[in-house]
Structure formats: structure tokens, C-alpha cells
Design goal:
The complex is a heterodimer of chains A (127) and B (361). Chain A has 127 residues and is an alpha+beta fold. Chain A is built from 4 helices and 9 strands, in the order βββαβββββααβα. Chain A has helices spanning 30-36, 82-86, 90-93, 117-123, and strands spanning 8-9, 14-18, 24-28, 39-43, 50-51, 56-62, 66-70, 75-80, 101-105. The termini of chain A are close together. Chain B is 22% helix and 34% strand. The chains are: A alpha+beta (127), B alpha+beta (361).
Chain lengths: 127, 361
């Protein structure tokens, strides 16, 4: 299982990368894509939507199952990856190369609660 | 403790993702289930189906017993080797299981039943044979493994992998079987493609599996098996029909013989039953999600329910089987609730795909 050390993670299997402009790119982890299998449908939030931490903001569906995706922290959705909704299988090829949406964290948002790679590895039993 | 087939170690060694399927530890996929699906539609794939149970029926009354026990008529089996798909019904006309019956000799038939229902079926058939005073030996064949080799090139590949098998099986028509050494080779399947289902001693299962891999047959898991059978419009027992459903409301009227004077378990109940619902195919319109079992279907004639839904790799679209009011017809547009939103789906007559060809528009 791939687990880049420079990313943060959630218990709900999202990865988070802090971009230079302060926005957060959010994707799903390699563990999540592996568990779900062949991805066939992705539903992303509307740009401009204001979301709370741990709020369900979208859905990924594989042949096998549907799974919600969540906001890691409170904020506003500022971009969505529409190329991915056209070809969801790209997530299976490399889960970390494809962000699903970008979030501008709210002023009070606390990224300190996010997991680092080793904590996430422990969570999924790969430590 | 999950039950294991004789191929379990091979599945695990090849990195298969394993799942609990009706109490059996079975491969879901070996990588991409969509690629496995395409391999079967375009070339050849194979499935370990050793969890299914063959039951041999021996005795001079075997045919008479099955004539009464099965909803389809075993008298359609005139030549040894011929096979018949049938429902096993309870007296209320509900479906206990679906199975394939093979006519071997006048005093020997073989049925193959689903894994999760095998114990229940065996108990039911044993009780029925006692009730009918049929002098009959029912022998569950847990000593046999089963491998399904499916796809346009499946038969050729089996002949390459199993020397001598071609002479025994080249002339087999669909739904016919032949014995070759201690292999039982049937031209049947659950994918909508040509191919064989092979029953063989457990001790030979790994050798045949490896020989098939060596000639380019791709191992496929239950994930691909489900998308293939759904495209082919084939029911899955426990999902598309249960004891609560009769075959006439499950798209299986063609397998029930109500016209001959023959009596069979469930006949009286079916003869008087109103057929209020039917099983239809659905094609979801647009990229709005995936149809799944238990989603609600809304039609002009009333509500229905998706019984099996998936993403069809061949159509690149979500498809389903759904039980709807009987007046709903092919060509109608209905709505399906996915995550509290309603989406349009087109009603079609299954199958969606057979022998590599798309049959719906």
C-alpha cells in the first residue's frame, strides 16, 4: 500500500495535501481504492459549497459498492476535478495523482487533527 | 470458520481479494474485475465454482422423482448427457433454489445446486423422496471440484489444457455434457458466453487450473461472475428470486411447465396465482450513479424494487434487474431512487448482452 509521507489523512480514508496558496487538495487513499475496486462513478460537490468538518460532500462508486467522501475540515469548495468524473478509473491507477476537490479551509479550521502517514497506516492495520 | 475449495491456496497465492460468500472463502477478483469481465467476453476466463454442490440421484425411480420435484419437465431430457435448467419449488410455488439437472442414464441423474442453499435442498429432496416412497439414493458429491471456463475461446483453451478432452466434448451442443476419464464436461455456464463447466476430482483441480492458466485462461472472481450473469439476464438465487417469489414473477415462466398433465411440487399454487409483478431489465440513463439491489423503482403502475444492479462493463452503463408491476412494459421509462434522488431508467427485456453482442440499444 502506498502512503506518501508528505500527505495528511483522515479516518474516513481521504488524503489531504496543503497547496502553496493554502488550499487543501482532497483525494481518496490507495487503501480506499483497493478496498472499493474498479471505480465507475464519482459525484463531486458544487464549487462554492460551504461545508463543515466531516460532512459528506460526494460519493465514489465502484462496481461493487458506493462510499461517501467527507470534508477533512470546515471550509469552502473552490475547485472540483471534472476530468475524474469522466474517467473514474484513474483513481485505481494512482490514487494520489488525482485530487477530487479543493477546499479553502475556514479561518477556524483545525488541520492539526488530521492523521500523518504513520497514524493512518496504524489505523488501516498496515503499520 | 469459512469453508474452502481445493483451489483456495492457489487463489491466495495469486493475490486474489477473498470474500465470505455464503460461508465460503471465495475470490472476489484477482486485480481488476472489469478486466476479468472483458477477458470472458472477448477471450477466455475461468471461475472456481467448487462451492456449488453436485448431487447424484441413483435408482430406477430417479426420473419419476425429478418429474415431480422440479418445475421444469425432465421428460424434455431424451438423450443421455442433456441438461435442463429448473426451479425447485415449495408447495406454495415459492422458489427454493434454481439448478441444472443432467440426465446421465435412465437410473442416474445429477443436479447442481447453489452453495448457500445446498444443505436446505438436500434435506428437502431427502424428505420428498421419503414422502414419495421413491427408492432413491441421493449422494452429495463434495468430492468434486468445479471449474467454469467461459468465453469465445474457452472450449479451444480447455482442449489445449486437457489432452484428449476435445474428442469427448467437441460435438457437445449447448446444455449437454459428456464424461471424459473422471472429468464431467458440460457445455453450460453463467456468463452468456460459450464454454464449459467441468466437474472433476478435487485432487486434480489445481493441475487443471494451472494448465488453463498456462494456455492463457484468465482467473476471474465472483465480481466478474456477477456482472457477466447480470448482462446475460440470468437470475441470482437469493437476490432476484427467493422463497417469497414464484418463478412466473421472476422472469422464469419459460422454465415452468404448466401445460402438460404432469403434477409437480408447487403446480397447484402456480396454476391459480395471479401474476401481478414481473422481472424486467433496467438501463440507467446518464452518468448519475449505479443501480443497486433494494433501490426503489417508481412506475406509472406503482412501485417496484431493484433486485440486482451493477455497472455493466460491456455497455459502460448501469444496468439492473427489477421486480415491477406486471403492466410495466419494455420501452417504458421509470424512475429509480438513488441516494434520495430520482433518476430515469429505461425498461428493457433481458438479456443485455449475449455471446459478446449488445442486445439492447
Amino acid at each position: 500500500m502506498k502512503l506518501p509521507a508528505d500527505l495528511k489523512y483522515t479516518a474516513s480514508h481521504e488524503w489531504i495535501r496543503t497547496e502553496t496558496d493554502g488550499t487543501l487538495s482532497v483525494g481518496i487513499t490507495d487503501h480506499a481504492q483497493e478496498a472499493l475496486g474498479d471505480m465507475v462513478f464519482i459525484e463531486l460537490p458544487q464549487v462554492g459549497r460551504v461545508v463543515a468538518a466531516e460532512e459528506a460532500v460526494g460519493v465514489v462508486e465502484s462496481v461493487k459498492a458506493a462510499s461517501d467522501i467527507y470534508a477533512p475540515v470546515a471550509g469552502e469548495v473552490v475547485a472540483i476535478n471534472t476530468a475524474l468524473t469522466e474517467a473514474p478509473e484513474q483513481v485505481n491507477a494512482d490514487a494520489y495523482a488525482h485530487w477530487l476537490y479543493k477546499l479553502k479551509p475556514a479561518a477556524a479550521a483545525d488541520t492539526g487533527t488530521l492523521l500523518d502517514a504513520s497514524a493512518y497506516a496504524k489505523l488501516v492495520g498496515d503499520a | 470458520m469459512l469453508r474452502q475449495t481445493p483451489l483456495n491456496a492457489l487463489h491466495r497465492a495469486s493475490g486474489a481479494k477473498m470474500v465470505d460468500f455464503g460461508g465460503w472463502d471465495m475470490p472476489l477478483s484477482y486485480g481488476s474485475q472489469i478486466e476479468e469481465h472483458h477477458a470472458v467476453r472477448r477471450d477466455a476466463g475461468m471461475f472456481d465454482v467448487s462451492h456449488m454442490l453436485a448431487v447424484d440421484l441413483a435408482g430406477t425411480s430417479a426420473r419419476a422423482f425429478l418429474r415431480y420435484a422440479l418445475a421444469n419437465n425432465v421428460d424434455k431430457l431424451a438423450q443421455p448427457g442433456r441438461a435442463l435448467y429448473s426451479c425447485l419449488l415449495n408447495p406454495a410455488g415459492g422458489v427454493l433454489d434454481d439448478l441444472i439437472a443432467y440426465f446421465l442414464r435412465e437410473d442416474a441423474f445429477r443436479i447442481v445446486v447453489n452453495a448457500a442453499t445446498a444443505d436446505k435442498d438436500l434435506a428437502w429432496l431427502t424428505a420428498l423422496s421419503v414422502q414419495r416412497s421413491a427408492p432413491l439414493a441421493l449422494t452429495p458429491r463434495r468430492d468434486l471440484a468445479m471449474i467454469a471456463v467461459q468465453g469465445p475461446n474457452a472450449r479451444d483453451k480447455l482442449w489445449q489444457a486437457l489432452p484428449g478432452s476435445q474428442a469427448a466434448s467437441a460435438e457437445l451442443k449447448p446444455f449437454a455434457a459428456a464424461e471424459f476419464s473422471d472429468y464431467f464436461i458440460a457445455r453450460t455456464g453463467y456468463t452468456g458466453e460459450d464454454g464449459f463447466e467441468i466437474m472433476l476430482p478435487q485432487t486434480r483441480a489445481s493441475a487443471l487450473w494451472n494448465a488453463l492458466v498456462a494456455v492463457g485462461v484468465r482467473p476471474c472472481g465472483l465480481g466478474a461472475r456477477d456482472t457477466l450473469r447480470l448482462e446475460a439476464g440470468m437470475n441470482l438465487y437469493g437476490q432476484d428470486m427467493t422463497e417469497a417469489d414464484n418463478p412466473l414473477e421472476s422472469g422464469l415462466g419459460w422454465t415452468v411447465d404448466l401445460s402438460s398433465p404432469r403434477d409437480f411440487v408447487g403446480k397447484a399454487a402456480l396454476a391459480g396465482a395471479p401474476v401481478a409483478r414481473r422481472l424486467v431489465g433496467l438501463q440507467l440513463q446518464g452518468k448519475v450513479g449505479v443501480l443497486r439491489s433494494h433501490q426503489k423503482v417508481l412506475t406509472a403502475q406503482g412501485a417496484g424494487e431493484v433486485t440486482s444492479g451493477t455497472f455493466s462493463p460491456t455497455l459502460s452503463q448501469s444496468i439492473a434487474l427489477a421486480r415491477v408491476p406486471g403492466a410495466v412494459a419494455a420501452g417504458d421509462t421509470v424512475e429509480v431512487e438513488i441516494r434520495d434522488k430520482r433518476h430515469a431508467a429505461r425498461v428493457v427485456k433481458p438479456p443485455f448482452v449475449r455471446n459478446g453482442k449488445v442486445l439492447v440499444s
